[in-house]
Design a protein that fits this description.
The structure is a homodimer of 328-residue chains. Chain A has helices at 2-6, 10-24, 32-43, 49-57, 68-93, 104-108, 110-130, 134-156, 165-190, 195-219, 234-237, 243-249, 254-264, 272-284, 287-307, 315-327; strands at residues 97-98, 101-102. With 328 residues, the first copy, chain A, is mostly helical. Chain A has a single domain, classed as Farnesyl Diphosphate Synthase (Orthogonal Bundle). A two-stranded antiparallel sheet of chain A has the order 1-2. In chain A, helix 4 crosses helix 9 (165-190), helix 8 (134-156) packs antiparallel against helix 9 (165-190) and helix 10 runs parallel beside helix 16. Chain A is globular. The relative contact order of chain A is 0.12. At the A-B interface, helix 3, helix 5, helix 7 and helix 8 of A face helix 3, helix 5, helix 7 and helix 8 of B.
Chain lengths: 328, 328
């Protein structure tokens, strides 16, 4: 990633995040089952976008670089919250694959996935208390709460063809944007940013979170999604209607889409022809373009906010991330 | 419960525990689904044995009664950990009933149960940080970790006819006894007990935890279990072999029990005749008597330890609880 070349030491910091994740997830139980799950989690390690955002935000305050180690510890906590949420989400989605590999629930069973997620959460909490990170601890607890609201909100709208863009945005704020906001807030807090810088960083985090989830959802309805290791249209088939679909549902072509949805019912596999028809309806309603425009709008707003931040070299890092995530 | 008459103010303290549970679980999301779950949790409210043990332990230290309010807050946190664990366990067990009512997962779906459990956990953590309870926070995080080990250990021994009494005891330590130990440790800590009293209380908590789970498991193989709102032999049918069954498996009659297990396979419903045969084998191996003797032994050890504690009136309360739990 080009951002690593631009930002001195960022690659090292991310390696330190990994070291802390390993330390925090160290399993003393000797249960081979849990060890296999933890190895699997390590093997499927993501791109660590959330810790990266936290580390970048943590370079705007006067305490940097003295707060470097603490930022890496907090980055590890944020990444682990993301991991725990993925493990629990996969139970709900019944997903066979995540990042191109089998999910914990499909490989080790729902039972193990419930407790593996709880185990990861208990470890984060333990280390947050140990590090005496009261403020970060409260913030992250509130964030997990809001993440639950987002997921529950999404469940409530499951297979609901009347769901609105507002419902969707509210749910993805909870599911995804809230943890990006928390990452920025903690970076700002640990590096001693003033209230104005901190607020700007939190707003940037929110835009990044929205565009990150929008891009993810968009990939799920475009053919290139297969490369992400998740079946195309799996959200749609699971009854999770994302922006391109909701846009189409509120378009004149949405009438036909509703008919298709009612015909296929819940949870059913669909033929290639039906999949193509869905794609055609989404295309004709310009659902994909609308989503892309929304992503670009969030990126543009984040860029504007970045302009107001102190002119430290790390601004460029945020721009790189924005370009990367917005391009998708 | 007679214990309330003996211990002045205990009933009031437990009411205050309820007030804090309500406050901590207050839901700001407005999601009707989550609100229904939380109402359901309140309606099925348990006997609050864990907070009661914490409150009793909290009367041995010099800081009592000054620490009263804090004890009630910690009692609420301990009860909520228990609640969250029940919600997540029911997903794993696929249990239709708990305390005679429908479980969250059977009434609202597994999805809701995953997030409702996570929501409850996030709230506990938030308030522990808010109350600046670092020591209690670390202890409870470790306890949740050990609870996961117990549950994972139980999963690992699922449908395993070679499982031993040692495996079983290790798993019920994690599942149940660990939270009773934590309740006693926090009671001791908050009330300022010295190390010796604290250690005695933790040991008493461990014995109470063991006998509590042993009694619960015993009820599941005796006919009076139906009154508890859980089907008789549901543990056995789910492949969780508890002390009476494990004892029978290691008895000469265990050979026939293994044959029955292999015949019925996993997860199958069994006829009344098969159920009776299982009961006969358990009876002939004296599995029930052995379990009862073990319960009595834990109660006796706890009583001995109580004798070593300072002679405050609350000792009688512990004895009442012991008698109540041991009698079953």
């Amino acid at each position: 990633m080009a951002v690593f070349d631009q930002i001195e030491g960022l690659q090292d910091d991310l390696r330190l995040v990994d070291v802390y994740v390993d330390e925090y997830l160290h399993d003393e139980s000797g249960h081979t089952g849990l060890r296999s799950v933890l190895n699997e989690i390590n093997a499927t390690g993501g791109k660590k976008v959330r810790p990266m955002v936290l580390l970048l935000a943590g370079r705007f305050g006067p305490k940097w670089p003295g707060c470097r180690e603490r930022l890496c510890k907090m980055g590890a906590a944020v990444e682990m919250i993301h991991t725990a949420s993925l493990i629990h989400d996969d139970i709900v989605d019944d997903s066979p694959l995540r990042r191109g590999r089998q999910t914990v629930q499909s490989k080790f069973g729902k039972e193990m996935a419930v407790y593996a997620g709880d185990f990861v959460l208990s470890r984060i909490v333990y280390y947050l208390f140990k590090e005496a990170s009261t403020e970060a601890g409260m913030l992250l607890a509130k964030t997990v709460e809001v993440m639950c609201y987002g997921e529950i909100g999404q469940l409530a709208r499951s297979y609901d063809t009347e769901t609105t863009i507002e419902d969707y945005l509210s749910n993805i704020f909870g599911k995804t944007a809230s943890l990006f906001v928390a990452a920025c807030a903690i970076g700002a807090m640990e590096s001693g940013c003033g209230e104005k810088t901190s607020m700007l960083l939190r707003q940037i985090g929110e835009h990044i979170g929205y565009l990150f989830q929008l891009r993810d959802d968009l990939l799920n309805v475009t053919s290139s999604a297969r490369q992400e290791g998740k079946p195309v249209h799996s959200d749609f088939m699971n009854g999770t209607y994302t922006m391109p679909i909701i846009h189409a549902l509120h378009h004149p072509a949405g009438r036909r889409l509703r008919e298709v949805i009612h015909t296929i019912g819940t949870g059913a596999a669909v033929s290639w022809e039906v999949e193509e028809e869905i794609q055609n309806i989404v295309n004709s309603s310009r659902g994909i373009e609308f989503t892309r425009e929304t992503i670009d709008a969030h990126a543009a707003q984040a860029r504007d906010l970045l302009e107001s931040l102190p002119k430290v070299p790390v601004r460029q890092g945020f721009l790189e991330i924005l370009d990367l995530l917005a391009a998708g």
